[in-house]
């Protein structure tokens, strides 16, 4: 398999993916933080009305991330609202990234395998109808290429994830501190 | 108690102490392999753990060949095993879906049917298995049965919603998994080896305090590592059942736990042992959490940093005993440092797909030739480091001789890996590294140079501040 052919096929599939990705990202991230994008990932699950805690669901089939439904307490403070909105926004952003990552990876991998098989003159499925796969050393070319191509995108994601994670944890700390303070104030007063 | 298969702490400790006995039995190397494979995998990094298929292979080995009482797996809790079972089934369904070339996220979710239940109650065992069983074969049949499969799948997924509150009964298990307790135990064992090799009288109190402090520091580092890597862990088969991924505790709770362990561990080391050991512990936590963890996604230098992180605990053990950073301490660190490369490079060779998809920059993916070269180089380096044992007065001259067979064997496997670079040779090298390290440390211990120079020993002792 020549490098030119590999690059050609990968470019072809990635251009198509980029269009899909930008559509999905626009759809997901253009929403207001406190609105739910039901068409994209929300499951129909509704937690019981008397529950005072958040609920966490099974891993999403595309992003492998677990969605959380945040409960809004009756006397939610500004800080708590800020935390909830940030967590929801981060969850949506994370979900968008990983869905696109997994879809892109699988599509690029399929395209690469197809192009390699075509180069060898083999069909996609063998006589028994099973899909052909490539040798691990042949796939290694694709893995390296995928990493190199998405290097900047991954780095940007890392930086953003670390920043959001810290901010959320800091906010959680502040909320917890305020709750404790309120509790002691009520007990003393 | 732990959901994950293979080994208990006592099993590991028992193994490292009585390796000779075990090697006599035919199945013993395999037992130690299964045991240590899991532990050594945990040692490196969550994303570098073996895939689901490999884990199944190891687990089958472990369950079938386990003969020693220490290796018997504790019966998992009913709900815990149920969740584990559900997660596996879910994963298999997702994998089937992900094999379909054209995936459009929109329409698939739009076919979600009316909710069957809003309660996230653990279903009775009887319903889980048939659900999975019918979901499996039906998914492969003609499209007209897809609706039923979706309905069943949606109902099953709805039942998996859980309330996000801390379950006090599960908290010890959660903490154990958060701190990667088995990896922590391994780190403590290497620190203990460093302590035992130091040429000073054995002080049980200091030994215990140093081990405890090192263990707490390792818990901190592992917890922070998991805190940083939640979305990445979610996407890897082996790590997707971690406490933060599953929401069993909040990120704030995990950080609080890490801080508590860190402060107590480093204080214990600094005040009850000596400040040098405390400083090394703090340095190791910093290296692991702030250097190694972010670097995994940025550059291949993460492997060298990771090797340094693995080399520091035996140095800490030595400094806990002697209070000084002697050449002997660096020798013990040198063993671990050199060992890391054949161990990790061979492991990462078979995980290239996971690394690529997760965005981890590892030598095995980006610089495959270098990966093999470095593994070979450091395997040969082990021979050299073993030779330094008598030179630095740490071991007798017999040590390089008795360790030569195992060092040559791992170098031979590294050479085969270098030549062939295929999955089989990588796996062989990896499994060899699992028993090689305990053997090497044990041989070093048995060949430890006895203290024939009381003046020299007294001089070393006087440097250590009174605990």
TrEMBL record, chain A:
PANTHER family: APOPTOGENIC PROTEIN 1, MITOCHONDRIAL (PTHR31107), CYTOCHROME C OXIDASE ASSEMBLY FACTOR 8 (PTHR31107:SF2). GO terms for biological process: intrinsic apoptotic signaling pathway. It holds the Pfam family COA8. Signal peptide: none annotated. Belongs to the COA8 family. The keyword Nucleotide-binding does not apply. This is C14orf153. GO terms for cellular component: mitochondrial inner membrane. Transmembrane segments: none annotated. InterPro entries: COA8 (IPR018796). Keywords: Membrane, Mitochondrion, Mitochondrion inner membrane, Transit peptide. The lineage of its organism: Eukaryota, Metazoa, Chordata, Craniata, Vertebrata. It is found in: Mitochondrion inner membrane. It is a peripheral membrane protein. It comes from Esox lucius. The gene is CN153.
From TrEMBL, chain B:
Keywords: Heme biosynthesis, Membrane, Mitochondrion, Transferase, Transit peptide, Transmembrane, Transmembrane helix. It is found in: Mitochondrion membrane. The keyword Ubl conjugation does not apply. Its EC number is 2.5.1.141. GO terms for cellular component: mitochondrial membrane. PROSITE patterns: UBIA. It is a multi-pass membrane protein. The chain crosses the membrane at residues 183-202, 208-228, 249-270, 276-295, 398-417, 429-446. It catalyses: heme b + (2E,6E)-farnesyl diphosphate + H2O = Fe(II)-heme o + diphosphate. GO terms for biological process: cytochrome complex assembly; heme A biosynthetic process. GO terms for molecular function: protoheme IX farnesyltransferase activity. Its main location: mitochondrion. Belongs to the UbiA prenyltransferase family. HAMAP family: CyoE_CtaB. This is Protoheme IX farnesyltransferase, mitochondrial. It comes from Esox lucius. The gene is COX10.
């Amino acid at each position: 398999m020549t490098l030119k052919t590999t690059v050609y096929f990968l470019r072809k599939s990635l251009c198509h993916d980029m269009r899909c990705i930008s559509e999905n990202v626009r759809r997901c991230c253009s929403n207001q933080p406190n609105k739910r994008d039901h068409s994209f990932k929300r499951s129909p699950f509704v937690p019981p009305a008397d529950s005072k805690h958040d609920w966490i669901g099974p891993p999403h089939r595309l992003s492998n991330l677990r969605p959380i439904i945040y409960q809004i307490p009756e006397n939610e403070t500004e800080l708590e609202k800020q935390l909830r909105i940030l967590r929801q926004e981060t969850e949506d952003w994370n979900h968008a990234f990983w869905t696109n990552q997994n879809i892109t990876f699988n599509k690029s991998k399929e395209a690469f395998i197809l192009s390699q098989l075509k180069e060898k003159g083999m069909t996609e499925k063998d006589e028994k109808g099973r899909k052909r796969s490539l040798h691990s050393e042949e796939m290694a070319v694709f893995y390296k290429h995928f990493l190199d191509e998405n290097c900047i995108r991954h780095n940007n994601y890392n930086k953003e994830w670390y920043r959001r994670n810290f901010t959320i944890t800091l906010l959680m700390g502040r909320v917890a501190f305020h709750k404790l303070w309120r509790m002691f104030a009520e007990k003393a007063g | 108690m732990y959901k994950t298969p293979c080994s208990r702490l006592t099993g590991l400790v028992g193994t490292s102490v009585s390796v000779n006995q075990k090697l006599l039995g035919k199945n013993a190397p395999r037992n130690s392999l299964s045991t240590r494979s899991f532990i050594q995998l945990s040692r490196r990094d969550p994303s570098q753990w073996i895939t689901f298929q490999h884990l199944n292979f190891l687990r089958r080995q472990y369950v079938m060949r386990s003969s020693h009482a220490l290796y018997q797996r504790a019966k998992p809790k009913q709900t815990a095993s149920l969740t584990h079972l559900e997660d596996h089934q879910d994963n298999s369904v997702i994998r089937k879906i992900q094999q379909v070339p054209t995936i459009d996220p929109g329409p698939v979710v739009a076919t979600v049917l009316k909710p069957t239940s809003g309660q996230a109650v653990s279903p009775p065992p009887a319903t889980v298995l048939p659900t999975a069983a019918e979901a499996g074969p039906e998914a492969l049949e003609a499209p007209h049965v897809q609706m039923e499969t979706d309905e069943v799948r949606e109902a099953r997924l709805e039942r998996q919603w859980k309330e996000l509150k801390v379950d006090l009964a599960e908290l010890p298990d959660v903490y154990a998994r958060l701190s990667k307790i088995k990896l922590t135990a391994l780190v403590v064992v290497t620190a203990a080896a460093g302590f035992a090799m130091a040429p000073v009288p054995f002080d049980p109190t200091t030994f215990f305090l140093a081990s405890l402090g090192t263990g707490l520091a390792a818990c901190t580092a592992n917890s922070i590592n998991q805190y940083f890597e939640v979305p990445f862990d979610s996407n890897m088969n082996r790590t997707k059942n971690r406490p933060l991924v599953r929401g069993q505790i909040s990120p704030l709770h995990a950080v609080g736990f890490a801080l508590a362990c860190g402060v107590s561990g480093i204080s214990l080391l600094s005040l009850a042992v000596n400040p040098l050991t405390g400083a090394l512990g703090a340095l190791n936590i910093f290296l692991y959490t702030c250097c190694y963890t972010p670097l995994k996604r940025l550059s291949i230098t993460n492997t060298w940093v990771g090797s340094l992180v693995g080399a520091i605990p035996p140095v800490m053990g030595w400094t806990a005993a002697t209070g000084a950073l002697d050449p002997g301490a660096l020798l013990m660190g040198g063993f671990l440092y050199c060992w890391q490369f054949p161990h990790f490079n061979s492991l990462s060779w078979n995980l290239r797909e996971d690394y690529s998809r997760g965005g981890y920059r590892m030598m095995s993916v980006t610089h495959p030739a270098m990966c093999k070269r470095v593994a070979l180089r450091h395997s040969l380096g082990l021979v050299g480091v073993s030779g330094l044992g008598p030179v630095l007065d740490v071991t007798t001259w017999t040590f390089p001789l008795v360790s030569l067979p195992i060092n040559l064997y791992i170098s031979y496997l590294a050479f085969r890996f270098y030549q062939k670079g295929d999955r089989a040779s990588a796996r062989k090298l990896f499994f060899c590294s699992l028993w090689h390290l305990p053997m090497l440390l044990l041989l070093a211990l048995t060949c430890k140079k006895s203290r024939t120079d009381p003046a020299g020993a007294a001089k070393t002792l006087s440097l250590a501040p009174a605990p």
